[in-house]
Each structure stands twice: as structure tokens, then as C-alpha cells.
Amino acid sequence: MQIPQIRMQSQFAKIAINTTPARQSIQQPQAEMHISQPKAEMRIKQNPGRLTIDQTQAWEELGLKSMKSFTRDNTQKAYRKASEAISKIVTDGNEMMNFHNGVNAYAEQARRHANPPPPDVNIRYIPSPFSVKVHYQRGKVDINVQTRQPIINAQASKPIISYQLGDVNVSLQQKNSLHIDFVK
Q1: How far, in Å, CA of 172 to CA of 18, rounded?
Q2: pLDDT at 146
Q3: Closest by alpha carbon to 94, among 108, 113, 111, 83?
Q4: N or C: which end of the chain has fewer CB within 10 A?
Q5: Record's Pfam families (predicted)?
Q6: pLDDT band at residue 155 using 50, 70 and 90 as cut-offs
Q7: pTM score over 0.85
Q8: Does 54 fall in a domain?
């Protein structure tokens, strides 16, 4: 005895998907830029320094005097010597006038004039230290700077964007099927 059988054969549906990817392109043109820097203005005002050197005293100590200075010094020296001489004569005259004191004025004056005191001798440097007078008056510098800001002109460029849409195609590649057989 044979038992009837049912045979089923099935086939699944297959879907096909085809895609085209989207494309995007972005380009950025360079910006246009112009930069200029104006020169700064600078003014410098300078008063020069002043150096003064006075060698008058050094030259005079060396004996190289101006006529005015030479005349002045000789006049003062002559006046001083004349005053000393007059003073000496007056002193000697007063001593002679006082002969009644019992002092031999002539002998005393002869002894004094015959043996004068030794001259005062010292070492002296010519010209003396610091006889040259130096004076410096420093100068003054005024600096005035006027800065200028840079001039910047910039023009930005917009980006160039292109976009191509993608595509998706869905199709049925294989249909589904069911096949049934009866076998006896």
C-alpha cells in the first residue's frame, strides 16, 4: 500500500538592489586680499651736547698768559712788592728814630739784611692738577613717532558646491514560487 505524498518545492523571492552613490564636490577659491602698510612718521629733534674746555689756568701757570692777564698779574705783584718795600722802609726808619732805647739800629738792620731767611722751596707741578676745567652739558633728543595702521582689504569668495544625488533601484530578481506535487 502506497501512501499518497505531497511534495512541496518552494523558492524564495530575491530582491536586487542597485545603488549609485551620491557625489559631492566642494571647491574654495582663495580670498582676494590686499594689505598695505603706510610708513610711520618719525621726527627726531636733537639739541647737541656742549663740551667746554677752559685751559686758561693751565696756560697761565706755564707762563703763557694773555696780555690782559699778564698786565693784571704784574700790576698786582708790583703793588704787593711796593707795599712790602714801603713797610720795610717805615719799619727801618722807626727803628732808627728810636735810637734812644739803647739799641744799635744800624747794626741790627745790617745783620738782618746780610742774612735773609732762606727762600721757601717746594716742589710744584706745572700745570697744577685740575687746572684744566672741563664742563659737559648733555644734549636733548626728542623723538616723535606717529604710527599708521595697516590697510587690509579682504574679499572672501563663496565656496563652489556641486552635489549629484545618488540613486537606489530596487527590483525583483527572482520571483517566489511554490510548487506542490501529489505523488500516489
Answers
A1: 11
A2: 94
A3: 108
A4: N
A5: DUF6470 (PF20074)
A6: very high
A7: no
A8: no
